[in-house]
Amino acid sequence: VLLAGGVRSRPPTSIELEVLDERDTSALTRRSELSETDVFFVALHGGSGEDGTVQGLLEVAGVTYTGSDRLGCGLAMDKEVSKRLFRQAGVPTPDWLVGPQSVAEVERHLGLPVIIKAAGGGSSLRLLLAHDLAELEEAIAESQNWNDLVLFERYHVGRELTVAVLGGRPLPVGEIIPSHDYFDYECKYQTGLAEEVFPADISQDLAGRLQDLSAQVDAALRLRDYCRVDFIVDENDDPWCLEVNSLPGMTPNSLVPKAALAAGISFPELCDQIVSLARNRSLSHSV
Q1: For the segment 42-96, what is each residue's pLDDT rounded down to a tens digit?
Q2: What is the pTM of this model?
Q3: Does the keyword ATP-binding apply (predicted)?
Q4: Backbone angles phi, psi at 156, to 5 degrees
Q5: What is the rounded distance in angstroms from the CA atom of residue 127 to the CA atom of residue 224?
């Protein structure tokens, strides 16, 4: 998304987006309306927009863009690699196995219920919760059609909390209260199926611990500008890092803007800060 003349109230038209659909990175600098662009604001979500593909194209084009680079995006998109980096950085994350695995092996190592999800992707797609052996067998069968590495993760009952990080600085903690057992695709995108509370009603100690862990995740995966880190906090107030989103949603109703608003940062101010971070990084590299 190109920000020209400030944050617009409407999304770009299909004609405006055609410029980026030519599969020719030189179009980003050849087109007169883009040749003098200072910063490209990347607000894509999932797929090639978040796995480092688009970021690599922008780097080849030699333009300045917001958000993490292709390395950070790639590390964050691969949930199994992310979890290894969490552990290496001392950030607690639920135990896991990677597929293919038998029903017996998953139950023996992780117990039930258990989460089954694709190692790549986002938006809580290809994410299942198996409560018993029958559901686990069905989930394993379904996962064979995902064309992706399958990750089995220990299920921790608890509160779903999230922390946005802006320029390396954690914002207020938010809580997601889904109507389902977990924050699945329906709860994420259908109105009324999840309540999002900013700031979360938690102790200052827990909030501080979650913010510290989020900053560690941001640094461990070499992310830039902004990200969002998701946790489950169990009944003992122990946090478990589930994943990090290197390019979280940026509509006014998304989680990061809500976290920013809780910190006194309006949506236009948030976008301006993100652009400034990218612009300043570009200027420092050119010196």
Answers
A1: 988 777 888 999 999 999 888 999 999 999 999 999 999 999 999 999 999 999 9
A2: 0.86
A3: yes
A4: -110, 125
A5: 27
Taking the C-alpha atoms of residue 85 and residue 89, their distance in angstroms, rounded to an integer, is 6
Contact 164, 256 (CB under 8 A): yes
CATH number of the domain at 144, please. Answer: 3.30.1490.20
Note whether 191 and 260 are same-domain residues. Answer: yes
Domain total in the chain: 3
Mean pLDDT for all residues in the chain: 87
Amino acid code (one letter) for 90: G
Amino acid at 219: A
Domain encompassing residue 82? 73-90+157-266
By the 8 A CB rule, do 255 and 228 touch? yes
Do both 166 and 234 map to the same domain?
A: yes
Q: Tell me the two tokens of residue 226.
A: 């902004």
* Shared domain check, 249 and 137: no
